[in-house]
Amino acid sequence: MISRALFPLALVLACAGTAQQDAGPPAERVARLVKTGRLDEAERVARGGGPELTVPLAELLILRGKLVEAESLLVAAIDSNRPGARTAQAALAELAARRGNRTAALRLAAVLADNYQLSGNGWPVPDRIAAGRAYVVLGLAESQAPRLALAAFDGAAAADPTNVEARLRAADLLIDRYNAPDAKSSYEEVLAIDPENARALLGMARVLSFENNPGATEVVRKAVAANPALVPGLLFLARMHLEAESYDSAAAVAGKALAVDSTALAAWGVMGAVAWLGGDSTGWRQARAEAARVHPAPADFYSELAEAAARHRRYAAAVGMAQEAVKLDSLSVRALGTLGTNLLRTGAIADGRSMLERAFALDPFHIWNKNTLDLLDNLQTFRTVRTARFEFVAPDDEVDLLALYLGPLLEEAYDSLAQRYDYRPPTPIRLELYRHHADFSVRTIGLAGLGALGVSFGTVLAMDAPSARNPGDFNWGSTAWHELAHTFTLGLSDHRVPRWYSEGLSVLEERRARAGWGADVSVEFLAAFKAGRIRKVSEISEGFVRPRHPAEIGFSYYQASLVCELIEQEHGTAALAALLRAYRDGLDTPAAFQQVLRLSPEEFDRRFDRFMRERFRTALAGLDAWDGKEPVSGGFIAALVRGRQLLAEGRVDQAKAELERAQKLFPEYSGQDSPSWDLARIAQQQGNPTAALEQLARITTHDETALEANILEAELRMQLGDSAGAAAALQRLIWIAPYQTDPHVQLAELAEVRGQYAAAIQERRAVLLLKPADRLEARYQLANTLFRAGRTAEARREVLQVLEQAPGFEKAHELLLQLRTTPPQGGN
Q1: I want to staple 301 with a disulfide (CB 3.0 to 4.6 A). Which of 291, 579, 627, 772 is the partner?
Q2: Three-class DSSP category at 21
Q3: pLDDT tens digits, one per residue of 514-542
Q4: Which domains does the chain have, with CATH numbers?
């Protein structure tokens, strides 16, 4: 990417004046009025400004959707070679492209670009910007044109460091191709010159959204406040409302955009998406008709719909909408990319790749499409292992080990979930596991940086492999169970379930699956609840898509699981599935709650508040309200801090008393930073393993990533001869860190002692798959365990492999002699 030189701070400050809206030459007045959204006034000034304002008037009219008059003015400006004729030519090319006349658009843009190639170095800054705009139009047909456009914009910015238009156009070009880091730099440069620039604020909101950072809503609201007529800003805000399932708000904001420009195809796309998602067939047909009125082949209308459908997890519908877009414009990079991405999400890998390759050939600078194609190249090196209902796709050297555990786990999960929800998703279900988190992130959103661990597209799942994270960072078993639960909730609701409810059920199902799995209560969550900083249930969707602070997404997951828990507690398990069916039938949350629970959302809000205050009464009393800025405080925190200080000073008895007091103040909290860990270590050091195990159990049965606690628990239980307890700790450990051989060996030995040969065989196979230093010994141990389990045919195959590599392996010879005297049985 072409670098941008820094500009002097003094020059920035000198150019940041605040002239009055009604002062200065007419051209400057028009520009200031347009910038602040005062379009009526701007048009009056422009119409009275004479020929020199012909081009500014035409561009203003385009903003207002008055396209026929604008075209006439632009043609006149070009024919008479008035000031701004090159800008007029660029605007006319853009207008032709907007109205679907690709041939005319490319012809006009090519003339301007050719002239720029011949003599552009001497052009004034506005004309260089015009050349960059022409190259953007040429990007409809020429793959290298975006690079040339960026060069033209950068050249204009270098020629005049105070010119914000050049930087804005460069940044918009970058963000349109998902290059958020470089776009961010340009937007920041503009805001350093002009802190209230609405277009730059909108760009920063887009960057925040692409980077999955909170604050995008606040920033775009600032942009719209600075320029209430900023149609792209209004549409960005409308899309955010749409994603949060606030359909009325989305329609209202999109309506404001259409009041400014009734020909804005994207605005009609948002209106169509609102109607389609809300089941309003009349509104949908009206939006579609309006889109056809403003464009002969409204591919962007259907692309907008497809993207909205995908954001609402309706991936098959997204494919259908994107196919319509491609039919209307087979050269639309947006349509081809949207279709390709959603085909991948539905498991149509070859077809999805084909669409993305077509998009990439048209625009090789589109980062999302490029990243996804690179990922597909990597995916071709993966191998697939199949079970009865699942396909596990992972790197060749990991897939056998991962499938060894995930196969039985997810087959169990399928049966459990099918019984609870009375629904059986179609199989096979595909699960892709990535050893690099960036690859998983690209698979999900096309960009690196996603904070999630897994994603469900329905019957296609993707997640981090254990190797993608440091041991103790996450639990890969609970993550897989969580994503499979989405397969059921999405399928039963026909992909209409709100995100908050699907996530809440998935977390609840994690907690059912194994002790300790699933999100648990945190100090910050309860302190935020006490401060009134947890959203009402009726507003919970906002916490997922428009978080006010980084912790709010995590809070929302846990809160949603508690909502589901309360529904089950008061209305029974059947109510959980009944709500999914209500969503499937087209009901929104208020109507679904009324039908199934006989409660309004407001009534449920009050019940949930009472539920929280009763369930966590003791803990809430021991915490102060938390503002999200200062550290959490209160009696629990004070006792915990004091206990650890005393422990550091060697005053163990006093420390123990303070830590026990902290534990009583917040008995539900059992994370690894809870008092339980310190109390367990104290008990261990005092030679009281039973007391240590009591404290460790509080952690390991509540914290799914408790690596050190499980290691210590397994060790202590083996010392006490508690083989069942030690095995349970080791099994939990494997779902946290599966790549160490010792836990597998220990589990195999414990299982054999207890006569659990199926479990022992699984662990012996795992050891072999981990490629231990002594692979012959590992294979011999597998053969011996198979023999003891009575699976003599399999044992014979394994021991013969040992002897092929090491003919003098004495123990293998002895085992082979035993096998020869034992009748063949077992095996495949």
Answers
A1: 291
A2: coil
A3: 999 998 999 999 999 999 999 999 999 88
A4: 1-221 (1.25.40.10), 668-739 (1.25.40.10), 740-828 (1.25.40.10)
